[in-house]
Amino acid sequence: MDVQKSYEVRTYGCQMNVHDSERLSGLLEDAGYVRAPEGSDGDADVVVFNTCAVRENADNKLYGNLGRLAPMKTKRPGMQIAVGGCLAQKDRDTIVKRAPWVDVVFGTHNIGKLPVLLERARIQEEAQIEIAESLEAFPSTLPTRRESAYAAWVSISVGCNNTCTFCIVPALRGKEKDRRTGDILAEIEALVAEGVSEITLLGQNVNAYGSDIGDREAFSKLLRACGKIEGLERVRFTSPHPRDFTDDVIAAMAETPNVMPQLHMPMQSGSDRILKAMRRSYRQERFLGIIEKVRAAMPDAAISTDIIVGFPGETEEDFEQTMHAVREARFANAFTFQYSKRPGTPAADMDGQIPKEVVQERYMRLSALQEEISWDENKKQVGRTLEVMVAEGEGRKDGATQRLSGRAPDNRLVHFTQPEQPVRPGDVVTVEITYAAPHHLLAEGTPLAVRSTRAGDAWEKRTTAAAAKPAGVMLGLPTIGAPAPLPAASAPACGIG
């Protein structure tokens, strides 16, 4: 194969898909492809769509994008288009019927087959559809092109054993399958050796880790083991389920210095009646009780959540229970979503679907309340001295304001004055917070200290190597940066949590 062949991976959906796309990129580069320059917009030899099935209109979005590539493919002999991810797992043969110019369709369980399927499609000159029904190889055994030199996702499990009525993930990613602890720690140690200083443990329900072997404390043991890895400065995880959230996890978070004082735990609704309809196996009292225990152990912890507004059958009284829970929990931020039907989920066929205008009005009320709480909670940070890990691509206005941006230990976004000495993504800057907005903090004074790190060295080495590549093989700078919660406009985390 010509080593100059280029590829582009387009990712939709949750953190799990972002991580899978790193694997897909790694597989393609291992097979000799090079990443297309940023902004190529389909002008590549291979375009891969890593799809999400969470949104009601996910298929329309996919077929619209495929349609725009059809004339481009006609003009570019040898171009190939592949579709993978959750929508591919769900729709299978439908994709090629609706878009016969697609060359490869693969599922969530066999992403490792992509290069082989592309080559087979090229030789046989016909579409290759291969959907495995169960996991063939744990994704972390595949080559990876990490999007960040200083922060990394580390998958600890795939699949989910829950049956939430709004979520199609268990049907598409299968039952939970845990990865061996030794393999997880070995991957983290290898990443740290490469310069990574922050990792995020990733799973559909991370705190159910260990269910394969019947060890209810396996996740807390994993957190404590991460605390013993020299050079690993920050450990985060997403997302836990309240049902499996045990006191030993709280203790491990509080007692392990490199586990950050941050918790993202989806609540989804504050109404016990709606939680039951969602098949969420906890109630408001249980959820708020966990938060109370977390704050008792870690007073400065920032807690965030996911909330769905307008679930079928939700009354004004149910919605007020959600508002009450939000007032009690005082989340640092909440990713709120208007319920929309997910094809293939039980909730899509439930009675009591809420009119869109009612859902919208409730959504606006909840958003306004959470905005007020987020701002109040951020104001409490003013005057504090924080260690901020410099990030890449987090501050859209940094160029105009002459500031840099990064994440505090609790994952709050901080914009700060650029220090006199050069700093790189992955380095750590100590700042004093002078101003708070609902979604970020500002440190307007001169930084108090700058600490160069091995992570910054890794970023510099990577970008220098990328810049030295000849034209046409340029991999470009990383665009995702440190793993962080999805923006509020995105889909819920693929049913995570």
From TrEMBL:
Sites where the protein binds [4Fe-4S] cluster 2: C160, C164, C167
Annotated Radical SAM core domain residues: 146-377
Pfam families: Radical_SAM, UPF0004
Names of the cofactor(s): [4Fe-4S] cluster
GO CC, one annotated term: cytosol
Keyword Protease in annotation: no
Domain MTTase N-terminal intervals: 5-123
Domain TRAM: 379-447
Record note on cofactor: Binds 2 [4Fe-4S] clusters. One cluster is coordinated with 3 cysteines and an exchangeable S-adenosyl-L-methionine.
Broad class of the protein's primary localization: cytoplasm
Reaction catalysed by this enzyme: N(6)-dimethylallyladenosine(37) in tRNA + (sulfur carrier)-SH + AH2 + 2 S-adenosyl-L-methionine = 2-methylsulfanyl-N(6)-dimethylallyladenosine(37) in tRNA + (sulfur carrier)-H + 5'-deoxyadenosine + L-methionine + A + S-adenosyl-L-homocysteine + 2 H(+)
Binding site residues for [4Fe-4S] cluster 1: C14, C52, C86
Keywords carried by this UniProt record: 4Fe-4S, Cytoplasm, Iron, Iron-sulfur, Metal-binding, S-adenosyl-L-methionine, Transferase, tRNA processing
EC number: 2.8.4.3
Compartment(s): Cytoplasm
Entry superkingdom: Bacteria
GO molecular function: 4 iron, 4 sulfur cluster binding; metal ion binding; tRNA-2-methylthio-N(6)-dimethylallyladenosine(37) synthase activity
Biological function: Catalyzes the methylthiolation of N6-(dimethylallyl)adenosine (i(6)A), leading to the formation of 2-methylthio-N6-(dimethylallyl)adenosine (ms(2)i(6)A) at position 37 in tRNAs that read codons beginning with uridine.
Subunit: Monomer.
Family: Belongs to the methylthiotransferase family. MiaB subfamily.
Protein name (record): tRNA-2-methylthio-N(6)-dimethylallyladenosine synthase
Organism listed in the record: Streptomyces nanshensis
Gene: miaB
